[in-house]
Amino acid sequence: KHCRCRSCNSPFPSPFQLAALERQVFDFLGYQWAPILANFLHIIIVILGLFGTIQYRPRYIVVYAIWTAIWVTWNIFIICFYLEVGGLSKDSELLTFNISRHQSWWSENGPGCVRKEASMSGIKGLDNHSYISVIGCALEYRYIEVMHSSFQILIALVGFVYACYVVSVFTEEEDSFDFIGGFDPFPLYHVNEKPTNLLFKQTYL
Protein backbone atom coordinates (compact mmCIF):
# COMPACT_ATOMS: atom_id res chain seq x y z
CA LYS A 1 0.00 0.00 0.00
CA HIS A 2 1.09 3.53 -0.67
CA CYS A 3 1.61 6.05 2.04
CA ARG A 4 -0.91 8.84 1.60
CA CYS A 5 -0.31 12.48 2.36
CA ARG A 6 -3.09 13.67 4.64
CA SER A 7 -2.43 17.31 3.86
CA CYS A 8 -2.83 16.61 0.14
CA ASN A 9 -6.18 14.85 0.21
CA SER A 10 -8.15 18.07 -0.17
CA PRO A 11 -9.69 18.33 -3.68
CA PHE A 12 -7.70 21.40 -4.74
CA PRO A 13 -9.03 21.59 -8.33
CA SER A 14 -12.65 22.04 -7.17
CA PRO A 15 -12.72 25.87 -7.37
CA PHE A 16 -10.84 25.56 -10.66
CA GLN A 17 -13.59 23.31 -12.01
CA LEU A 18 -16.26 25.82 -11.02
CA ALA A 19 -14.37 28.65 -12.72
CA ALA A 20 -13.89 26.58 -15.88
CA LEU A 21 -17.56 25.56 -15.96
CA GLU A 22 -18.65 29.18 -15.54
CA ARG A 23 -16.42 30.19 -18.43
CA GLN A 24 -17.72 27.30 -20.52
CA VAL A 25 -21.36 28.30 -20.00
CA PHE A 26 -20.87 31.86 -21.25
CA ASP A 27 -18.75 30.71 -24.20
CA PHE A 28 -21.53 28.29 -25.16
CA LEU A 29 -24.07 31.09 -24.99
CA GLY A 30 -21.91 33.14 -27.35
CA TYR A 31 -21.12 30.22 -29.70
CA GLN A 32 -17.39 30.80 -29.24
CA TRP A 33 -16.22 27.44 -30.57
CA ALA A 34 -12.48 27.80 -30.00
CA PRO A 35 -12.87 28.77 -26.31
CA ILE A 36 -15.48 26.01 -25.90
CA LEU A 37 -12.97 23.42 -27.08
CA ALA A 38 -10.20 24.87 -24.90
CA ASN A 39 -12.48 24.96 -21.85
CA PHE A 40 -13.52 21.36 -22.44
CA LEU A 41 -9.89 20.20 -22.45
CA HIS A 42 -9.22 22.30 -19.36
CA ILE A 43 -12.08 20.68 -17.45
CA ILE A 44 -10.79 17.20 -18.35
CA ILE A 45 -7.25 18.02 -17.19
CA VAL A 46 -8.53 19.54 -13.95
CA ILE A 47 -10.51 16.35 -13.25
CA LEU A 48 -7.35 14.36 -14.03
CA GLY A 49 -5.41 16.46 -11.52
CA LEU A 50 -8.10 15.89 -8.90
CA PHE A 51 -7.99 12.14 -9.53
CA GLY A 52 -4.20 12.15 -9.26
CA THR A 53 -4.37 13.94 -5.92
CA ILE A 54 -6.94 11.61 -4.38
CA GLN A 55 -5.54 8.38 -5.84
CA TYR A 56 -1.85 9.18 -5.25
CA ARG A 57 -0.88 9.49 -8.94
CA PRO A 58 1.90 12.11 -9.15
CA ARG A 59 2.15 11.70 -12.94
CA TYR A 60 -1.41 12.94 -13.40
CA ILE A 61 -0.63 15.95 -11.26
CA VAL A 62 2.45 16.65 -13.38
CA VAL A 63 0.22 16.56 -16.48
CA TYR A 64 -2.04 19.11 -14.81
CA ALA A 65 0.94 21.32 -13.95
CA ILE A 66 2.14 21.23 -17.56
CA TRP A 67 -1.35 22.03 -18.81
CA THR A 68 -1.54 25.11 -16.58
CA ALA A 69 1.31 26.63 -18.60
CA ILE A 70 -0.64 26.00 -21.82
CA TRP A 71 -3.80 27.36 -20.21
CA VAL A 72 -2.04 30.56 -19.15
CA THR A 73 -0.72 31.00 -22.69
CA TRP A 74 -4.21 30.53 -24.13
CA ASN A 75 -5.74 33.11 -21.80
CA ILE A 76 -2.98 35.58 -22.62
CA PHE A 77 -3.95 35.13 -26.28
CA ILE A 78 -7.62 35.79 -25.42
CA ILE A 79 -6.61 38.99 -23.63
CA CYS A 80 -4.58 40.11 -26.64
CA PHE A 81 -7.49 39.20 -28.93
CA TYR A 82 -10.03 41.38 -27.14
CA LEU A 83 -7.57 44.22 -26.59
CA GLU A 84 -6.62 43.98 -30.29
CA VAL A 85 -2.92 43.58 -29.64
CA GLY A 86 -0.59 42.64 -32.47
CA GLY A 87 -3.04 43.12 -35.30
CA LEU A 88 -5.78 41.01 -33.73
CA SER A 89 -9.37 42.22 -34.00
CA LYS A 90 -12.14 41.46 -31.52
CA ASP A 91 -14.63 41.74 -34.40
CA SER A 92 -13.02 38.92 -36.38
CA GLU A 93 -14.47 35.42 -36.58
CA LEU A 94 -11.29 33.76 -35.31
CA LEU A 95 -12.86 32.36 -32.14
CA THR A 96 -15.77 30.87 -34.08
CA PHE A 97 -13.50 29.17 -36.65
CA ASN A 98 -14.95 31.50 -39.32
CA ILE A 99 -18.21 29.55 -39.42
CA SER A 100 -20.42 32.17 -37.79
CA ARG A 101 -20.55 35.86 -36.94
CA HIS A 102 -21.33 35.38 -33.28
CA GLN A 103 -19.53 37.46 -30.69
CA SER A 104 -19.10 37.19 -26.97
CA TRP A 105 -22.37 36.71 -25.06
CA TRP A 106 -21.41 39.74 -22.99
CA SER A 107 -21.56 42.00 -26.07
CA GLU A 108 -25.36 42.08 -25.78
CA ASN A 109 -25.92 40.99 -22.19
CA GLY A 110 -23.33 42.91 -20.24
CA PRO A 111 -24.17 44.95 -17.12
CA GLY A 112 -26.54 47.77 -18.03
CA CYS A 113 -26.78 46.79 -21.69
CA VAL A 114 -30.07 47.45 -23.48
CA ARG A 115 -30.68 45.40 -26.62
CA LYS A 116 -32.84 46.96 -29.34
CA GLU A 117 -33.97 45.48 -32.64
CA ALA A 118 -34.94 47.61 -35.62
CA SER A 119 -36.68 46.16 -38.65
CA MET A 120 -34.80 46.41 -41.96
CA SER A 121 -37.71 45.49 -44.21
CA GLY A 122 -37.41 48.77 -46.09
CA ILE A 123 -33.93 47.87 -47.38
CA LYS A 124 -33.79 45.76 -50.51
CA GLY A 125 -32.47 42.26 -49.94
CA LEU A 126 -32.80 42.49 -46.17
CA ASP A 127 -36.50 41.78 -45.73
CA ASN A 128 -37.42 39.86 -42.58
CA HIS A 129 -34.09 40.85 -41.03
CA SER A 130 -33.53 43.12 -38.07
CA TYR A 131 -30.69 45.35 -36.97
CA ILE A 132 -29.60 44.84 -33.37
CA SER A 133 -28.13 47.73 -31.44
CA VAL A 134 -26.81 47.61 -27.88
CA ILE A 135 -26.66 50.75 -25.79
CA GLY A 136 -26.15 51.76 -22.18
CA CYS A 137 -23.50 49.17 -21.31
CA ALA A 138 -21.78 50.03 -18.04
CA LEU A 139 -18.71 48.05 -19.11
CA GLU A 140 -17.61 47.11 -22.60
CA TYR A 141 -17.77 43.39 -23.22
CA ARG A 142 -14.13 43.05 -24.18
CA TYR A 143 -13.08 44.18 -20.72
CA ILE A 144 -15.34 41.57 -19.17
CA GLU A 145 -13.64 38.91 -21.28
CA VAL A 146 -10.24 40.27 -20.28
CA MET A 147 -11.20 40.06 -16.60
CA HIS A 148 -12.40 36.49 -17.13
CA SER A 149 -9.09 35.49 -18.70
CA SER A 150 -7.07 37.33 -16.06
CA PHE A 151 -8.95 35.46 -13.33
CA GLN A 152 -8.25 32.15 -15.11
CA ILE A 153 -4.56 33.01 -15.24
CA LEU A 154 -4.51 33.77 -11.52
CA ILE A 155 -6.23 30.49 -10.65
CA ALA A 156 -3.92 28.54 -12.98
CA LEU A 157 -0.84 29.99 -11.27
CA VAL A 158 -2.21 29.04 -7.85
CA GLY A 159 -2.99 25.54 -9.16
CA PHE A 160 0.52 25.18 -10.58
CA VAL A 161 2.15 26.10 -7.28
CA TYR A 162 -0.07 23.73 -5.31
CA ALA A 163 0.44 20.92 -7.84
CA CYS A 164 4.22 21.28 -7.47
CA TYR A 165 3.82 21.15 -3.70
CA VAL A 166 1.72 17.97 -3.85
CA VAL A 167 4.18 16.26 -6.20
CA SER A 168 7.12 17.18 -3.94
CA VAL A 169 5.32 15.78 -0.87
CA PHE A 170 4.43 12.57 -2.67
CA THR A 171 8.02 12.21 -3.87
CA GLU A 172 9.39 12.63 -0.33
CA GLU A 173 7.01 9.96 0.95
CA GLU A 174 8.07 7.55 -1.78
CA ASP A 175 11.74 8.09 -0.88
CA SER A 176 11.10 7.34 2.80
CA PHE A 177 8.89 4.29 2.30
CA ASP A 178 10.01 0.74 1.57
CA PHE A 179 7.39 -0.67 -0.77
CA ILE A 180 8.40 -4.29 0.00
CA GLY A 181 8.69 -4.41 3.76
CA GLY A 182 7.33 -1.08 4.92
CA PHE A 183 9.48 1.12 7.09
CA ASP A 184 12.54 -0.96 7.97
CA PRO A 185 14.92 0.49 10.59
CA PHE A 186 17.71 -1.91 9.50
CA PRO A 187 17.40 -2.36 5.74
CA LEU A 188 21.14 -2.91 5.17
CA TYR A 189 21.54 -5.64 7.78
CA HIS A 190 18.56 -7.79 6.96
CA VAL A 191 19.58 -11.47 6.87
CA ASN A 192 17.38 -14.37 5.88
CA GLU A 193 17.87 -16.79 8.75
CA LYS A 194 16.62 -20.36 8.57
CA PRO A 195 14.57 -21.77 11.43
CA THR A 196 16.51 -23.72 14.07
CA ASN A 197 14.52 -26.92 13.55
CA LEU A 198 15.31 -26.80 9.83
CA LEU A 199 19.03 -26.63 10.60
CA PHE A 200 18.75 -29.67 12.89
CA LYS A 201 17.03 -31.64 10.12
CA GLN A 202 19.80 -30.77 7.65
CA THR A 203 22.47 -31.84 10.17
CA TYR A 204 20.68 -35.13 10.83
CA LEU A 205 20.45 -35.89 7.13
TrEMBL record:
The chain crosses the membrane at residues 33-54, 61-85, 151-170. It is found in: Cell membrane. GO terms for cellular component: plasma membrane. It is a multi-pass membrane protein. It comes from the Eukaryota. InterPro entries: Na/K-Atpase_Interacting (IPR008516). GO terms for biological process: regulation of sodium ion transport. Its main location: membrane. Keywords: Cell membrane, Membrane, Transmembrane, Transmembrane helix. Belongs to the NKAIN family. This is Sodium/potassium-transporting ATPase subunit beta-1-interacting protein. It comes from Chaetorhynchus papuensis (pygmy drongo). The gene is Nkain4.
